[in-house]
Structure formats: C-alpha cells, structure tokens
Amino acid sequence: MRDAASRTGFFLVDDFAGVPRHVVDAAFDAAARFFTADTTTKIAACAWEAETNAGYVAIGRERLGVSHPDVGKEALNLPRDSAATVLAAVAATTDKADADALAALLDAASAAALALLAAIGEAMGDDDIAAFVAAHDASAAPAATSGTTLRALHYSPITDSDGVVAVDDDGCVLRAGAHTDYGTITLLFRDDRGVDDNDPASTSDDLEVLVGNDWIRVPVVRNTVVVNVGDLLHDWSTGLFPSTLHRVRGRATAHRFALALFVHPHDHIAVRNMPGLTAGDHLRSRLEASYTGTPSQS
Ligand SMILES: O=C(O)CCC(=O)C(=O)O
Ligand SMILES: [Fe+2]
C-alpha cells in the first residue's frame, strides 16, 4: 500500500474493502433508477445546494477540469451530514428501497474507509494513527460536521448535436476533466453497466491517472474498489502520498455509472501545511471553483 500510494496515489482493494457485494449492487441499481427520471423531475426533487453540497447536480453544472464542463455528467450528492433530505427525495422519485440502498452504501463505505485510514496511517508511518482515524470518524466526534459525501455519477451518451466538445480519434470524450480529489481518500466503485455492447472498444475502464507524462487506464477488476489519495492526505503525509491528477475519458456512445465516497476529515481539522486553513474551508473553496451557476436542461 505504501508503495502504490506513494508512486501513483491509486490502488485497488479486494472484496470492496469489506463492503458486501449486494450492498454495492443495490446502490448501483438505485442510482440507475433515479437517473432515469427526467431532468426537470430530478431538479424539482432535490436540486443541488451550494450550502450543503447536497442534491442533484444536473448536466452542465460541474467542471472538474478548468476548460469546460464535464460532458454529459450528472450526479447525486449525498453528504453524510445532510443525506436525509436527498434520501427522502430519492424515495419520492423512485421508491423507499432505492433510498435505503444508497443509505446502506453510505454507511458501509464509511465504515470501510475508517479501516482503510488505519492501514494508510500505518503505511505513511504516522506517529498518531488513532488521531488520524478519529479525525474522520463521526462516532469519535458526534457534534462535528464533515464533508464526507457519497456521490452517484452517471455519464450519458452524447451525440454530435450536443456540440460541447470534439470526440477524439478513438471515439472518446473527456467525461470529467483532469483534477485531484479534494478530501483525504476516495473509494470508487465501478461496474460494467453502461458498456456499449455494440462497440467492441467500449469498456468501463475509463478512469485515467497521470503517471509521469502518460495517462494510464485504471483496470476494472471485479469485486475491487479503487482507492485514491486526495489533497488532504497529500497534505497530511506532506507529499509522501501524492494526490494524483486523474480524469474520465470514455466512449461518447456509452453510459457510465460510478459510485464514489469522498472521505473528508471533520470540518474543523486544520490543514497541516496551510496555516489557518481548515478542512471545511478547503472543501468550500474547491466546490466553489468546480460548480457553475446554470444547469443545462438537456
Ligand atoms: O467517474 C469516475 O469514475 C470518477 C470520477 C472522479 O474522478 C471524481 O468524481 O472525482
Ligand atoms: Fe476524482
């Protein structure tokens, strides 16, 4: 883990890091059903709110890279601290079982993250692993708020008429621009749904990581979760574990689904190497830079 985290900032963990497969599958099914609703319904149910970072992020609202909005990407944000309102909106839009499935993944992935953080603390040679883990553990500080958020992501097929960006020679578009993640670690669950069966080149390994000067594809390995280092672990480890630039570059014709838990310390925790900045301030400034004002109604 120390080797992978320090070289690329990305690694795969078997058995979904302890999250039961049926919990992952049920959450994928729930997210896919929610995204099937039309845009107006989803916006009306729970439009994304800057204050809480909770809710439905319509196509055109988010730009992870600097150049243009992420192409054809919509998301449902379930921050740990304000999941309830979004879960109620999911229950009203599809059904209660779907809301329960997303809540179950939020809980199970959050627990898995704490176990991973203990291992990561050991791998980076932290002199107070317990404090590192406790800085992310809701039960260790029940009154503390945190940016930890489950996001369901859906990238829909795009056509020429979308006119947003060019499809490159490989038939791919940049689905999510190059960025580093904002928190401590991210747990990314992927599956094969959305792969275009009519297109032999279509795969779900669309996630690319910048290693040296090369964009390397992160392979999809069944029953694994991708774990990657975010900016605050880069900070905590003083650069030993780098938060690596990554992007999603995928087939223009395919759907893509992913579920990501962005794990953050409690908001009041100080960012080690930026005096005066807290984890909460850091997250707010990154969110402000990546969300645009107007949803497109496509
Ligand atoms: O869609 C994905 O696989 C990952 C997207 C990503 O890197 C992110 O949302 O931070
Ligand atoms: Fe990311």
Please summarize what this structure is.
Belongs to the iron/ascorbate-dependent oxidoreductase family. The chain is of the alpha+beta class. It has 8 helices and 11 strands.
Please tell me about this protein's structure:
- Belongs to the iron/ascorbate-dependent oxidoreductase family.
- Keywords: Iron, Metal-binding, Oxidoreductase.
- The strands form two sheets. This protein has a seven-stranded antiparallel β-sheet with strand order 1-9-6-11-4-3-2. Strands 5-10-7-8 form a four-stranded antiparallel β-sheet, with no helix packed on it.
- 46% of the residues are buried.
- The longest helix has 28 residues, at 96-123.
- Helix 2 crosses helix 5 and helix 3 (39-46) runs antiparallel to helix 4 (83-93).
- It is α+β, with helices and mostly antiparallel strands and 298 residues long.
- The chain contains eight helices and eleven strands.
- The protein has helices at residues 2-7, 21-36, 39-46, 83-93, 96-123, 129-134, 231-236, 279-290; strands spanning 10-13, 55-57, 73-79, 149-155, 172-179, 185-190, 207-211, 214-217, 225-229, 246-251, 256-263.
- The structure holds 2-oxoglutaric acid and fe (ii) ion.
